[in-house]
């Protein structure tokens, strides 16, 4: 089956033409590819490393929206949403094992315009998450120094900039080193949550945790559960980033499903334990607006060693998340450049380090600008909304994937169970969360939608003519059913 025949599976816009190929070769005729060096542990570290920071900060804004019970309900509903995302993602990505993750999925299954938008959703979600991590890193270090009698000694913005630049440099030098670091510090951050949970003696109510005196149910009624869904996603946002490593794992069919699903189980445990500890140590009014709730929880235990441990746990979580976000955003942008959805200049691979170095460097000043100028809740809202748009299209992708290539027609590395139930649950929970986002951040929702509509018009009217339609389809599948 030729590439030209494969294109028949996807809607094609008219007027495509060729642009100069990207600089991905050190010598004429030799194409430099990304290295396949990662295993399931690295995939776990990439997914959990990006997301675990959601247990250290951001999720608690859901408490401010509806109280502790609303936050826990949102946590579990979001857990169902992301379990569906993980299952659907594992099936498609273990089959479409290419850099770009959901962008590559949409490109092969839905069509060019959907792929362009999904690529933008990914880049915005990961970049805004990286910015959020940099902001929290600065606030955390500033708070730690102030708590130990060293106030005003440094500007927290310096730590924001240092975090972004240092991690970009690490990613520039190689994916194996950066994700091995993520594996180590993510494991340490998860251990910190477990240690805090055990230190608060959950088996002895009232000894440390004061749920009986602090707990309130629904201060704003059932509407608070809906409002809390917005920040409930923050417990897990980014687990789908495991797919960005698809072109760099040794065995996509094994590593991607195993790393993603194990990561999701890890996060469900960590999210519930985090909520339980924090709601028993802090009044919900304070918890709902705290910048570093787990570090605050460590301080409130009165154990100075635990406070220091949680400081490093929070620091490790933010660094691991920012590191993973740089990896994922650059891979999505690189894939779009390689396919000429963006200028081909971004599709270059470093001849020595074998990384998408131009895509990595490009986002450094953008992330710094947002970090020093945008409030934390705004960057979180932007990241969540971009991710939510991608999840909506993911539900459409799996429907078309199963319809065009039914089970048995192509080799799949993993088949998610109970189809189409996960797809239906994902769509329902996405709609609920859109309503929640509109209730709290209606202006930002309209602004982001305007941005994506404008970008889509630019792609259709201008950029698509540079795309080589045949080169972007890398899977040698049979003609889809019905075509």
Automatic annotation (TrEMBL):
It is found in: Membrane. Residues 49-447 form the Amino acid permease/ SLC12A domain. The keyword NAD does not apply. InterPro entries: AA-permease/SLC12A_dom, APC_superfamily. Keywords: Membrane, Transmembrane, Transmembrane helix. It is a multi-pass membrane protein. Pfam families: AA_permease. The chain crosses the membrane at residues 37-57, 69-88, 109-129, 157-172, 179-198, 218-237, 258-277, 308-334, 355-374, 380-401, 421-439, 445-461. The keyword Phosphoprotein does not apply. Gene3D superfamilies: Amino acid/polyamine transporter I (1.20.1740.10). This is Amino acid permease/ SLC12A domain-containing protein.
